[in-house]
Write a structure and sequence with these properties.
Arc Repressor Mutant, subunit A; 3-stranded antiparallel β-sheet; 9 helices; 3 strands; globular; WH_DNA-bd_sf; HTH-type transcriptional regulator McbR; transcription regulation; DNA binding
Length: 219
């Protein structure tokens, strides 16, 4: 495999490995051997090391002295901790959109994402569904105008994608639950109802957490 610009080589390697972790091809606690990745992708060992550091920052691998890089574990404590934090971050983004949208054009990106989510659900396309579910938060970034919030969410997004993918892969019918919750969230944003935004997102994250934990129990 050959990687090219515009992304840096290490970012491209990190994305490739992240996709394998998210889809479960690389299992929890599995060691990622630098030499094997270097040979498989025909890249330098230094680029692989930098990619692993990126994945560590994104909570997909743990790098231990003299033991190398291993895929992070998914357990109940980690899942609940991640869902709780993401719920607060999502609420910040949702409130920012509610406070600052001014016309229909501002809301159009969210309506287009909703259409894509519906289409992915109808095709039972898990990968696209997960990707588009996170497109929602990226559409909200300009309204928040907070680089620290954006960086934090982006670094946590791969870990959350991994959890969602696991849940939806085993329980595809539950994609409809996400669609309903997203529709309710849009209604709350349009109404500028911040209390309802928090309530909807709390329900969304709780439901997500339950799905992931149920999937873990049967994995």
């Amino acid at each position: 495999m050959t990687f090219k610009a515009p992304d840096s080589l290490s970012e491209q390697i990190a994305h490739y490995l992240a996709e394998r972790i998210i889809r479960g091809e690389l299992k929890p606690a599995e060691r990622i051997q630098e030499q094997k990745v270097t040979q498989a992708l025909n890249v330098s060992r230094g680029s692989v090391r930098e990619a692993l550091l990126i994945l560590e920052r994104r909570h997909l691998v743990t790098i231990l002295p003299r033991r190398g890089a291993h895929v992070t574990e998914l357990d109940e404590h980690n899942v609940r901790s991640l869902c709780t934090l993401m719920g607060e971050l999502y609420t910040l983004l949702g409130n920012a959109v509610a406070q600052h949208w001014r016309n229909d054009a501002d809301l159009l990106p969210f309506l287009k994402i909703q259409q894509r989510l519906t289409s992915a659900f109808e095709r039972q396309d898990i990968r696209t569904f997960v990707e588009d579910s996170f497109a929602v938060m990226r559409a909200a970034y300009p309204f928040a105008d907070n680089p620290y919030l954006q960086e934090t969410v982006e670094n946590l997004q791969p870990a959350m994608s991994r959890a969602y993918y696991l849940a939806l892969d085993q329980r595809k019918a539950n994609m409809n639950d996400f669609l309903v919750l997203f529709a309710n969230l849009l209604e709350a944003v349009v109404a500028r109802d911040q209390l309802r935004i928090r309530t909807v997102l709390a329900e969304y994250c709780q439901r997500s957490c339950e799905l992931v934990l149920a999937a873990l129990a049967t994995a």
